[in-house]
Amino acid sequence: MIDMVQKQSVVDLAVGSITSYICGSNLAIGDKLPPEVQMTHMLGISRPALREAYARLQVFGFIDLLPGRGAFVRSKNKNFATDPLAWFKEHKAQIKDYLEVRLELDPLAASLAARNRSNDDIRILKEAKEKFETAYQAGDADQMTEADAAFHNAIAQSTRNELLVAIINLINGYCAPLREQSLSLQEHASHAIQPHQKIFDAIVSG
């Protein structure tokens, strides 16, 4: 039996490109990657997408993210990236499982984000929330998926809790097909708008 080809998101492609760049270049362990602005231009992606890609690469052990300093090479061993994907394939996570975990993690992340967020975090959250709403009005499931990931990644980054960031981005990254499947249903997509607004308002108000 042949496996169905999985559509790759912008973040998936960015992770692949950055992994190839790290492993195929003369970069050494401890070297700093190019500045964020330069990387977004090189890859042709947005800052939220780059940040989600970096979050995954940090979970895999490829890079270290140091606040205020940037991303640094931690490993050039491709085997670091295989275990998380294998787990999700083996356990065949379902949408119900994904949503149950999200329902528990989102309030925790929002609570921490409300205490620790910066003005820049609020701006990024607002941009992602509005992008999701625009994509919903246009019926663009791909853009909704990307904006939803950016919104929840921004919440995670706002917590300033590295372990929670790693857990959320690992789940969001490898449950991306489940998110896409859920948001492709108009009813599910519409149900995300009000929670997004409530979470945003709670984080803004602190």
Q: What can you see in these coordinates?
A:
It is a single chain. This protein is mainly alpha-helical. 72% of the residues lie in helices and 4% in strands. The protein has helices spanning 10-24, 36-43, 47-60, 82-91, 95-116, 119-138, 141-158, 162-174, 176-183, 186-205; strands spanning 63-66, 70-73. It has a two-stranded antiparallel ribbon. Strand 1 (63-66) and strand 2 (70-73) form a beta hairpin. Helix 6 (119-138) packs antiparallel against helix 7 (141-158). The model is unreliable at 1-5 and 80-88 (pLDDT under 50).
Binned strand content: under 5%
Computed over alpha carbons, the radius of gyration is 17 Å
Spatial sequence of strands, sheet with the most strands: 1-2
Helix content: over 70%
Mean pLDDT score: 80
Distance between the termini: 52 Å
For this entry, what is the oligomeric state of its chains? single chain
Succession of helices and strands = HHHEEHHHHHHH
Major sheet: size, sense and barrel closure?
A: 2 strands, antiparallel
Structural class: mainly alpha
Contiguous runs where pLDDT drops below 50 for at least 5 residues = 1-5, 80-88
What is the total tally of β strands? Answer: 2
Total helical segments: 10
Gross morphology is globular
